[in-house]
Write a structure and sequence with these properties.
Layout lengths: L4 E7 L13 E6 L2 E5 L5 H8 L8 E3 L5 H4 L2 H7 L9 E5 L3 H11 L8 E5 L4 E6 L2 E7 L7 E7 L8 H6 L6 H7 L4 E2 L5 E2 L1 H4 L8 E5 L7 H5 L5 E5 L7 H6 L5 H10 L5 E4 L11 H10 L3 E3 L5 E3 L5
Parallel strand pairs: 3-4, 4-5, 5-6, 12-13, 13-14, 14-15
Antiparallel strand pairs: 1-2, 1-16, 2-3, 7-8, 8-9, 9-12, 10-11
Helix pairs in contact: 10-11
């Protein structure tokens, strides 16, 4: 069954919001599931401007507890209370996320009409699972504990071949459905037909990766390998390489190296330093494209469709 997957960039800025650039946040929609990655200041403004049916966000994934990645969280939690909701909201992130959520709820006297489940990540692991996919957290290297995330779909069954089924004498109906679900069936003549007799090769699912606030480390490429869309920090250009190193951030060229080494299909940069105006961002793109030609710049409220490859 095919499912739509889209990534909405709600904010592409780092450190401080600018009039035309909210702080880092990306919403991933996979059919009916909504996942938010980071929640900087201005997140709910972009959600409103995109007119998304977003109040039922399933889970929020926080990279780290620096202000420019979490200050939008209390507002999102309060706005989610404006609809009837029984499903829990899951919030994942490194240590201190629970304390931040708890103290915000207490100090702001938040009215929350749904369960909030906060889980802190202390080691690389699968943090969230659903029908046909899982989301994994892995370590980055920043000035405080920081994690990246990948959403990976499981392989899908191959395509069913009706002509083959008919030539094997399998009557149209429930037996076709059972074969498509991966069950073997026995015909009236006693012959057993395996799903592989009528199904094509298994087809791969999609992969989305979110990496921000880290210095360059080769292990990131292993984690995000084969991404259909890699959203990756590209905070500085080459002339600021020393500053990037000192602040444990990446240049756009280093982001491109991760995209190239991981065989990702597309890489879109995020979390730009406020030193670059929109007019100056193309320098980041030029340097990234020297290493990875499929590099792109994100802008606030940009939408990326993530189709199946086949």
């Amino acid at each position: 069954m095919s499912m739509n997957m889209e990534a909405f960039v709600l904010g592409c800025g780092g450190m401080m919001p600018l009039p035309y650039r909210h702080l880092t946040s990306v919403l991933l929609r996979r059919d009916g599931d909504l996942f938010l990655f980071d929640c900087g200041e201005g997140t709910q403004v972009s959600l409103k401007r995109l007119n998304l049916k977003w109040k039922k966000i399933d889970a929020i994934f926080i990279s780290h507890t620096h202000a420019d990645h979490v200050t939008g969280l209390p507002g999102i939690m309060m706005l989610s209370s404006q609809v009837d909701r029984t499903e829990p909201l899951y919030i994942y992130g490194p240590p201190k996320v629970a304390e931040y959520v708890e103290s915000s709820r207490k100090v702001l006297d938040m009215y929350i009409n749904y369960p909030v489940i906060v889980k802190e990540i202390t080691a690389p692991c699968i943090v969230h699972e659903g029908d046909g996919f899982y989301i994994r957290a892995f370590p980055l290297q920043h000035t405080k504990t920081c994690v990246g995330y990948t959403l990976e779909e499981l392989d899908r069954p191959g395509e069913f071949n009706p002509e083959k089924a008919e030539s094997l004498g399998i009557p149209r109906g429930p037996l076709w459905g059972r074969l498509q679900r991966g069950e073997s069936v026995t015909l009236e003549n006693g012959r057993t037909v395996e799903p592989g007799d009528v199904m094509g090769e298994r087809r791969s699912g999609r992969k989305f990766s979110f990496v921000t606030d880290t210095q360059y480390i080769p292990s990131i490429a292993d984690e995000v390998r084969g991404s259909d869309l890699l959203i990756c920090e590209g905070m500085f250009d080459d002339s600021c390489a020393e500053q990037a190193k000192e602040k444990k951030h990446m240049t756009s060229r280093q982001a491109a190296r991760i995209a190239r080494d991981s065989n990702s299909a597309r890489m879109a940069m995020i979390h730009y330093s406020p030193r670059y105006t929109d007019r100056e961002l193309p320098v980041l793109l030029e340097q990234a494209r020297e290493v990875f030609p499929a590099a792109e710049l994100t802008r606030d409220r940009m939408v990326f469709d993530i189709p199946y490859v086949d």
